[in-house]
From TrEMBL:
Residues 121-215 form the Acyl-CoA oxidase/dehydrogenase middle domain. Its cofactor is FAD. The lineage of its organism: Bacteria, Bacillati, Actinomycetota, Actinomycetes, Streptosporangiales. Gene3D superfamilies: Acyl-CoA dehydrogenase/oxidase, N-terminal domain, Butyryl-CoA Dehydrogenase, subunit A, domain 2, Butyryl-CoA Dehydrogenase, subunit A, domain 3. Residues 12-117 form the Acyl-CoA dehydrogenase/oxidase N-terminal domain. Residues 227-377 form the Acyl-CoA dehydrogenase/oxidase C-terminal domain. GO terms for molecular function: acyl-CoA dehydrogenase activity; flavin adenine dinucleotide binding. InterPro entries: Acyl-CoA_Oxase/DH_mid-dom, Acyl-CoA_Oxase/DH_mid-dom_sf, AcylCo_DH-like_C, AcylCo_DH/oxidase_C, AcylCoA_DH/ox_N, AcylCoA_DH/ox_N_sf, AcylCoA_DH/oxidase_NM_dom_sf. This is Acyl-CoA dehydrogenase. Keywords: FAD, Flavoprotein, Oxidoreductase. Pfam families: Acyl-CoA_dh_1 (PF00441), Acyl-CoA_dh_M (PF02770), Acyl-CoA_dh_N (PF02771). Belongs to the acyl-CoA dehydrogenase family.
Length: 385
């Protein structure tokens, strides 16, 4: 695996670190209190080239995946608004699916808008199940010139504001292999959105449900082959998971810096907190989370570039698990290091712990990551004769 950032990638990372620091961080606490997504900042991010420096309107590379990863890591490191970053990850997943599995017509229809400030969402979870794809009940019934979509999706990142949805459903008449992906306009007749959910953390990421009341789509709205949606969905989830690892690595850098400043300045029993071994232990665990998340994500991205699908899926799950479990521990330890100040809403420390809990759930729970990792281990080490 290569790894040195090019000078252009480093400049890109710094550019979006500064955007996170100067544009996203001011007002983050107020938006968290209000549970508000800032659409103006979303459009501003697009205008700075965050998306167009990754991919062109036809889905081809402009800066490429590593440039995008550099920008995402910089954005996460600079920003106090991790909910916004979560929405970025959800949006990026739709762009990636269109790049790799969309038709020319689908890319032409959606990518110019998604690169310029429209919002994308991918909808798999339903009231009856999330990670368990077999529990999906949304259906596509053939009709003249297309399909009628019926069902309900729950807890979908970006759903309250999305301009385009990638919807996971079952196509009637295909038998057991019926999972199919559909591209839906946010303003489609029959698509009824729920409210922006009132969440514990990641409150600035608009999350909600929507119903499909016989939403009409055409055959041109099918992404990939009918009945082959599961493979595309799994590829999307792996991409989603490696991005969580990258984002957590960026976030942990800012939290480490803040924690180190605290333990150097604060004294206990006549010496700085930094001289207590039990405090050092907490800080070192944060560093391990940052580096483990970063390098496992890079390894997953490298496997994706090399076309090693099995390694890609497994490493992405390891990255996601490392990031989510480590960030929950780090969030709680940050509160402990800062003491009562960490528990106060005024200082933003407790928000780290609240936001971290969501990462254990979004993009597949930790338990699902372990299940996927074990499946790949069984494939790698088959039974001996």
């Amino acid at each position: 695996m290569r790894f040195e950032w090019s000078s252009a990638e480093l400049q890109h990372k710094q550019k979006f670190f500064e955007f996170g620091r100067d544009e996203l961080s001011p007002g983050a606490a107020q938006r968290d209190t209000e549970g508000r997504f800032d659409s103006d900042l979303w459009r501003e991010l697009a205008s700075r080239g965050f998306w167009s420096d990754w991919t062109a309107e036809d889905g081809s590379d402009t800066g490429g995946m590593w440039r995008f990863i550099a920008g995402l890591e910089g954005l996460a490191e600079g920003s106090e608004d991790f909910g916004f970053v979560l929405s970025v990850i959800a949006h990026a997943g739709l762009i990636q699916v269109l790049r790799t599995h969309g038709t020319d017509a689908q890319r032409k229809r959606c990518l110019p808008l998604l690169l310029e400030g429209a919002v994308g969402a991918t909808a798999a979870t339903e009231p009856g199940g999330g990670s368990h794809v077999a529990a999906i009940r949304s259906t596509a019934t053939p009709t003249d010139g297309g399909f009628l979509l019926t069902g309900e999706k729950s807890h979908i990142t970006n759903a309250p504001v999305a301009d385009f949805f990638l919807m996971v459903g079952r196509m009637a008449g295909l038998g057991r292999r019926d999972i199919t992906l559909f591209l839906i306009d946010g303003g489609a007749p029959g698509l009824v959105r729920g409210h922006h959910e009132d969440l514990l953390g990641q409150r600035t990421s608009p999350t909600g449900s929507f119903r499909l009341n016989e939403v009409r789509v055409t055959e041109d709205d099918v992404v990939g082959e009918p009945g082959d949606g599961l493979a595309t969905l799994y590829s999307f989830l792996a991409f989603d998971r490696l991005m969580y690892g990258v984002a957590v690595a960026g976030q942990m850098q800012r939290h480490l810096e803040r924690a180190l400043f605290r333990v150097r300045e604060r004294e206990s029993f006549g010496i700085p907190l930094a001289e207590h071994e039990f405090i050092q232990d907490k800080i070192v665990d944060m560093e391990a989370t940052a580096e483990g998340s970063r390098w496992m994500s890079y390894a997953a991205a490298d496997a994706l570039e090399r076309g090693d699908r099995e390694k890609y899926s497994s490493l992405a799950s390891v990255a996601k698990m490392t990031a989510s479990e480590g960030m929950v521990r780090a969030g709680l330890e940050l509160v402990q290091v800062f003491g009562h100040i960490g528990y106060m809403r005024d200082h933003g420390i407790e928000r780290v712990a609240r936001d971290a809990i969501a990462i254990r759930i979004a993009g597949g729970t930790t338990e699902m990551q372990k299940k996927n990792i074990f499946k790949h281990l069984m494939m790698r080490f088959p039974e001996r004769d």
